[in-house]
Amino acid sequence: MIRIGGVNIDVSHPKAFASNLEAHNINMRYEYIFNDGFRSDGEVNWFINRFKLKSRADSIEEMADKVDIGFIQSCNWDKHIDQAMPFIQKGKPVFIDKPIVGSMKDIERIEKLVEEGARILGSSSLRYSKEIKEFLSRPVEERGDIISIFGTSGVDEFNYSVHIVEAMSALAGAKGKSCQYIGKGTDGDNAKCEMYSIEYENGIRGVYYSHIGKWQPFHITVMTTKGTFSFVIDTNDLYRTLLEAICDYVENRGNVFSDIYTLTNCTKVMLCGKKSRDELNGAVVYLDDLTDDDKFDGYEFEKFYSRSQGIVYKD
User: Fold this and answer.
1) Sheet strand arrangement including 219-224
2) Can you tell me whether residue 294 is helix, strand or coil?
3) Which of 68, 76, 125, 185 could form a disulfide with 302 if both were Cys (CB 3.0 to 4.6 A apart)?
4) Whole-Å CA distances, 268 to 123, 285, 286
5) From residue 107, how far is each of 8, 77, 189, 268, 295 by CA, in Å?
6) Structural domains in the chain, sorted by start
7) Is the pTM of this model over 0.85?
């Protein structure tokens, strides 16, 4: 049995992941949890008791000695690398939940760690969804060459919308080279839908919508030289697929995970979109235009997220 050391239960994923591990008899389980996030001791104890963990760890360093892989699941992406370091220093693989990082400084740092041998897996479960795998597995002679991709998301501009950007990256099969903010619509209820255009290195174009403040399903439309294909990601099956892939990786049965440069490229693309919106009045921003000052603020998001969350870890 693969032993997981979890870092924080800020988000709902640890509960959903542990439930899927049980339901699908996947050969992994949470054994320890370290928590210094905003969740109460009551919620942490519920998680420990419900999923029969061995104990709550006093430190990440202590926990890293006792497990086979670390799961970093803090809502504040600015903490992710530091929280992953005890596992990396002990030669253990680590899964970092989305968004893997949120700043140009952390992108440089995490890429250097991988170049030095760190085994880092991530990030969005959408990238590994069955719908995307099934579409890409169809012969090109049947589905055609991809020309453009359209995707929808909701909730917020980065923490949740990174899902659809990673999904589009998987479909495009190439890194994004620029992003442009192209406008917004409102729904009359103080929510807004922002629109961004991505250009990929292979010439494919993508447009994604982020409905800020409201959840939206992940609709994807792909236009190819053979026709137009649309599908909705089944969110009920996302975690099983991801967890099975992590298990396969740890047990040396295969590695479907994207390399770190593909994952960080998605953050770079979204930083370009943010810069286009906030600083350049909707002009196209290329990756080379980004500086060390460009970032999504994980600490500000943590303040917002902790205020907006109710009790998740309960029966």
Assistant:
1) 228-232, 219-224, 146-155, 205-212, 192-200, 176-186, 285-286
2) coil
3) 76
4) 14, 10, 9
5) 22, 11, 36, 8, 10
6) 2-99+300-308 (3.40.50.720), 126-235+266-294 (3.30.360.10)
7) yes
150 DSSP β-pair partners: 207, 221
CA nearest neighbour of 97 among 220, 239, 216, 234:
239
3-class DSSP assignment, residue 150: strand
Determine if the peptide bond prior to 14 is cis (ω within 30°): no
Using alpha carbons, list the distances in angstroms from residue 15 to 19, 21, 166, 173.
Answer: 6, 10, 23, 31
- Tokens read off for 266: 């998605």
Measured between alpha carbons, how far is 226 from 211 in angstroms, rounded to an integer? 30
Give the neighbor-by-neighbor strand order of the sheet with 69-72: 55-56, 28-34, 2-7, 69-72, 94-96, 120-121
Q: Which residues are within 8 A (CB) of 294 and not within 5 positions of it... i.e. 6 or more apart?
A: 103, 104, 271, 274, 275
Cα–Cα nearest to 282, from 156, 183, 178: 183
Per-residue pLDDT of the chain (315 residues; tens, 9 = 90+): 999 999 999 999 999 999 999 999 999 999 999 999 999 999 999 999 999 999 999 999 999 999 999 999 999 999 999 999 999 999 999 999 999 999 999 999 999 999 999 999 999 999 999 999 999 999 999 999 999 999 999 999 999 999 999 999 999 999 999 999 999 998 766 668 999 999 999 999 999 999 998 899 999 999 999 999 999 999 989 999 999 999 999 999 999 999 999 999 999 999 999 999 999 999 999 999 999 999 999 999 999 999 999 999 999
Report residue 258 as tokens. 């994207």
For residues 120 and 111, what is the distance between their CA atoms, to the nearest angstrom? 10
Handedness of CA 257, 262, 267, 269 (dihedral sign): negative
